[in-house]
Amino acid sequence: MATANKNLSNYDKNTMPNASSMRFGIVVSEWNEEITEGLFNGAYETLLDLGVTPDNIIRENVPGSFELPFGARCILESEAVDAVITIGVVIQGETRHFDFVCDGVTQGLVQLNHTYNAPTIFCVLTDMNIEQSRARSGGEHGNKGVEAAVAAVKMADLRRRRLR
Ligand code: DLZ
Q1: Which of 35, 66, 67 to mutate to test the pocket of ligand 1 (most atoms within 8 A of CB)?
Q2: How far is CA 164 from the centre of its chain?
């Protein structure tokens, strides 16, 4: 299948950078909590599996995905983190609110990546319905939280090698 090699939920630990001294922020949106908690658990357990210690994982909650950029900025400004993972899910409704929230969070996170010397990772599901979100937060399509943690460790390693 064309996407078989793109499912990072099945990461190879042996090829991953050593994350034992890395420090991460995780910002979690409370909107559609059932889904975002699944994504958080995937990200958190993966960071631990890659050697990150619990005291080096800082969690903050925000009300909705639209608030993720500001939540990430609060962590970037106040903690010496190697990367921040932002977790949310926006589900398609019958209004254009979906587009506004998706645009707002995406543009906000892009700006953070242009502003700060630590990367912000995008773990925001944008689905047609809750079933699709369930499939991607620990269901049949894996867990995008796992993939976000893998991306965070890889980007943190790049930052450490290139920016200091
Ligand atoms: C208002 C709103 C709507 C309609 N849908 C979602 C959603 O699907 N996912 C999500 O994370 N947040 C949603 N929100 C809330 C906004 O993100 C934000 O919290 C409020 O507009 C307050 O700024």
Answers
A1: 66
A2: 23
